[in-house]
Amino acid sequence: MSVGTRANFRRAALEAAAELFASRDDVSMSEVAEAIGVGRATLYRHYDSREALLRDLTTFAFDDARRALEDAHLDEVDVPEAFERVFRALVHIGSRYAVVTRESVCPPDDEARLAIGTPLRTLVARGQQDGALRADVPDEWLLFALKGAILSALELAHTAGVEDAAAFGARQFLHGARDA
After folding, report:
1. Calpha distance 86→117 (Å, rounded)
2. Distance (Å, whole) CA 54 – CA 174
3. How far is the C-alpha of 51 from the C-alpha of 90, rounded, in Å?
4. Hey, how many other C-beta atoms are within 10 angstroms of the C-beta on 126?
5. CB–CB of 91/153 below 8 Å?
6. Which pLDDT tens digit goes with each residue over 65-117?
7. Please, what is the angle between helix 79-93 and helix 162-177, to 10°?
8. What is the DSSP letter of 106?
9. What is the pTM of this model?
10. 27 φ, ψ to 5°?
11. What residues have CB less than 8 Å from 160, skipping those under 6 apart?
12. Left if phi > 0, otherwise alpha if psi is -120 to 50, otherwise beta: which for 28?
């Protein structure tokens, strides 16, 4: 793979790292370098440690997730459609989102945490207010369930495709969270 400019190198390194880390935890810098077609020394010139690579991957993933949620315009549609858009946006990001959530990686800063958490919290609150979600369940529990459902949809996307996995995940989340 030709990585060309520094920006292209960064994107290639982070996408390769995300794919590798999404499949397992014990990924080496050598494996990341091999996946992008460069030597280990070249990777180390850009990232002096595995932790530095993971920190940059976290920033990259949060930026992608923030943009995807902004682009979804969640406040412009009803609650069920908004959850479908959340699933579609985050499943489309794929392995980057999975690494950050599975590893419980802290956001790079409070702004990033709020950029992801706020739209999801707002949507859950809106769903509880309009009856699409159970009001007797704490919002933190619903957010935890949402995170798990998105991760499950990410796994399903490998075999079912992004669109089908996102649609299925949203339906399952809404059905399980609907007031009886």
Report:
1. 12
2. 32
3. 24
4. 16
5. yes
6. 889 999 999 999 999 999 999 999 998 887 676 666 655 556 666 776 777 88
7. 140
8. P
9. 0.78
10. -80, 135
11. 168
12. beta
